[in-house]
Every structure is written in C-alpha cells, then in structure tokens.
Design goal:
By secondary structure, the protein is mostly helical. It has one domain: Arp2/3 complex 21 kDa subunit ARPC3 (Orthogonal Bundle). It is built from seven helices and no strands. Helix 1 runs antiparallel to helix 7 and helix 2 crosses helix 6.
C-alpha cells in the first residue's frame, strides 16, 4: 500500500468502527442484554482507542469527547456521556502509559481488556449517577439503587464483548498503520 492510502484506510476503519459502535448501541440482540441493560459500545471503543501504544492523551480525550457527544445525540443530552467517556479515556491512557499492564499481555490475552473495560464501565456509570444526583428530580436512594443494577449489568456485558471489538480493530489498525 502507498503511504497515503494506508492513512485513508486507517481513518476509514476508525470512522466505520465509531459508526458501527453508535449504530449497534440501541440494538438488543439475543445475548446482548441483561436485566434490560446492554453493553456500552462507545465505552468499549474509547477503551480500545485509548489503550493503543501510540495514542497521545489529546487523541484519547478527543475520542472520548466525540463518542460521548454521539451517544448524547442518541439519548438525552443531560446528563452528558461525554464527561464520563473523556474521564475513561484519560484513566485508560494513563494506565497504558504507566505500563501498569504490559502491552505484550494486552495484545495476546483478552482478560486484561475485559478487566479494564469492566472497571471503566463501573466508573462511567458512577459518573452518570453523580450527574443524575446533581440534576435532582429523583431521590438519591432511587438513583443509587438503579446505579447498582445498571453499573453491574453494563460492566459485565461490556467486558464480555470488549475482546470482540478490541482484537479485530487492533489488528486492522496495526495493518493499516504500517
């Protein structure tokens, strides 16, 4: 491939994967739902995007911001998903940059990716619960009771589906990046 065509293919894969994760978000196929909650596809994409070796902090933040705004455009804009996805992107890239998990392990084993996504899903849902608390309208007991169910179901499903997104996307980015 010519250098410019690799660059365009790389961006095409990135844009297609973002669109795919946003489009599949409202779908509820068999095996993709637990107590009425589905996987958080944009969160999975942000973790996959941020965990790459060559990403900068700014690239991770931009990825989280874009996916957060896209998710907000499909749901209610307040509380914002962008806040939690940017925070997830920052924490994920800091984990990767501090080498707390060696990149060789991440590239070959699905368990670290699943654990990172599980933790980030709990963090993201907790940030959403805090935003619901600030809005008011519902009692704190009701918000935090719902939060437990939503956070656990979202974390379980997102972590189970994360390797399905991570390994093909990571491989495609490796091939097209050069």
């Amino acid at each position: 491939m010519f250098p410019y065509s690799r660059h365009f293919v790389n961006w095409g894969i990135t844009i297609f994967s973002v669109i795919f994760c946003v489009v599949i978000l409202p779908s509820r196929l068999p095996g993709m739902e637990l107590l009425g909650i589905g996987p958080n596809w944009p969160l999975i994409w942000v973790v996959v995007w941020s965990i790459r070796r060559k990403r900068t902090l700014m690239a991770a933040i931009v990825g989280g911001l874009i996916l957060g705004f896209l998710q907000d455009s499909m749901t209610a804009s307040w509380p914002s998903h962008a806040v939690s996805l940017v925070f997830v992107a920052i924490v994920t890239i800091l984990l990767q940059k501090m080498r707390s998990i060696p990149s060789e392990v991440i590239e070959k084993d699905p368990i670290p990716i699943a654990l990172i996504v599980f933790g980030m899903a709990v963090i993201a849902e907790t940030m959403m619960a805090f935003q619901f608390s600030w809005i008011g309208g519902r009692s704190l007991v009701e918000i935090w009771t719902d939060h437990q169910r939503v956070a656990l179901c979202s974390a379980i499903l997102s972590s189970l589906w994360a390797p399905v997104i991570y390994f093909p996307l990571n491989r495609l980015w490796d091939v097209t990046h050069g």
